[in-house]
Amino acid sequence: MFETILDEEERGQVGIGTLIVFIAMVLVAAIAAGVLINTAGFLQTQAEATGEESTAQVSERLNVISQSGVVSDDAAGSGEKGIGSLEFVVASAAGAGNVDLDEVTVELVGTSGQETFQLDESPPATNEIFTKAGDSNVLTDNSDRAEVTVDLESIPYALTEGDSLTVTFTTSAGASTTTEVRVPTTLVGDNGDSVRL
């Protein structure tokens, strides 16, 4: 069963061959481990970034506290009574970080078509934080409130009696808030009066 090797030179060569194979196996295992560790590190970094972005898309959004409109006898040149401008009071959602209103995108979708613009485009939009002093347009706290005005007549966008309009506010993080504006079938009020929508 066991063969006796009498030649001493052959005995040494077998040992060196085994050692070379062992070292090669260790090197292959080390390279494979290095690749696995690098891949795991990359995946962890990517998962953390994805988690942060997902959290921002859910939490860093605006809440619409109230919405109203200003009556116009000639809504956007349509010759009909309607809404000349929209006014929203907004706040940052619970758990949101700082929300820069100048980077918020507004999308209007209704019977007069679709319009998209940012809140720093004047006209049609203006925004002002009225709960704190200063020129900053950044909501830093959940108690901060801002008035956002959308001048429909400057676009022009006709919003007449009985119409409905979907307004979507999208922050720079990609979080969206959608609200629906419904104009009463009979607007009570004179030109320039404010009505709750």
Automatic annotation (TrEMBL):
It comes from the Archaea. Keywords: Archaeal flagellum, Cell projection, Cilium, Flagellum, Membrane, Transmembrane, Transmembrane helix. GO terms for biological process: archaeal or bacterial-type flagellum-dependent cell motility. Its main location: other. The keyword Transmembrane applies. NCBIfam families: arch_flag_Nterm. Flagellin is the subunit protein which polymerizes to form the filaments of archaeal flagella. This is Flagellin.
